[in-house]
Amino acid sequence: RTPMRNKHLEKVFGNILGTPLKIPPSPQLQKLGFGTGIEVCRVTRTPCKDVVKSPWAIKRLNRFAMMGEIERSEVYSERLEKEASLLRQLKHPNIVGFRAYKKDKEGRNVLALEVCDTSLADILEKRLDEAMGPLEVFKIQRFSIDIASALDYLHREMKILHGDMKGGNVLVKGDFEICKLCDFGVSLKLNENGYLEDREKYVGTDLWAAPEVIDEDIDQIGSGSDIFSYGLVIYETLVLMPPHLFGLADDPEMSLSELDTRVGTRPPLPETLELPEEYNVYVGIFYACTSDVPEDRPTAQGIYKMLT
């Protein structure tokens, strides 16, 4: 970077470029979430000259990853660095904001992000536990519009496949004032036609994966694969469970066997699910997005235009 750019970033981020990011001891951090090898915590920043600083979400390797196999730790570190590099470039109101990428005092790479209140997955899990029924339709609408807008920006302007669309990677502020897409550690580049630019392996999460991903049909993996997963997140808002898990048998062996046949397909809506007419448009989007044929799925731009 140029000295002028460094100076500007110091003003924005509080001179974090040349010094380790100051993070309180782990017991003082509020844990927001976790993933394989990763933890996300909320850190409150010390005011500077009576200027209140907004809190940050800190994403870093957890101690198990740090103490585990070196090879796996390197994979997680590479994903974190890749995510930081990509988020620096992304500027969209429905994509979580990049704040900084530094080392903490323990030498761990740390990605600092905009803080949101919770994730869509956590909201849905709470509704399931409290038997509250499907997410309110106005909240499904907010999610559907905001994340379609984010995906349209990624697919058409930035030529990026998110690669891990699921409820856990949708962040929510307030009472669905705005939804934001997060977690870009396994994102992939798209070519001009909307398919993978390089024959890189799609990582993602199987429960939300499109059929072409499960079949490892590299030539068919593209923006439509994100759309399939987007449709399954709509399914989550209706059923309050991750796709393919509803009604699995109690026998663990049978469950795993049955699950293998379900992933990469459109899960049926439970027969007991009764939805008012106002939900019909979102049920329709769910069905359209989860077509077996990638070319038959709507684009993110098409969904956004339809809903706005």
Automatic annotation (TrEMBL):
Keywords: Kinase, Transferase
Domain Protein kinase: residue ranges: 26-308
SMART domains per the UniProt record, alphabetical: S_TKc (SM00220)
GO function terms (MF aspect): ATP binding; protein serine/threonine kinase activity
Domain of life: Eukaryota
Record-linked InterPro entries: Kinase-like_dom_sf, Prot_kinase_dom, Ser/Thr_kinase_AS, Ser_Thr_kinase
Record-level GO cellular component terms: cytoplasm
Protein name listed in UniProt: Putative tyrosine kinase specific for activated gtp-bound
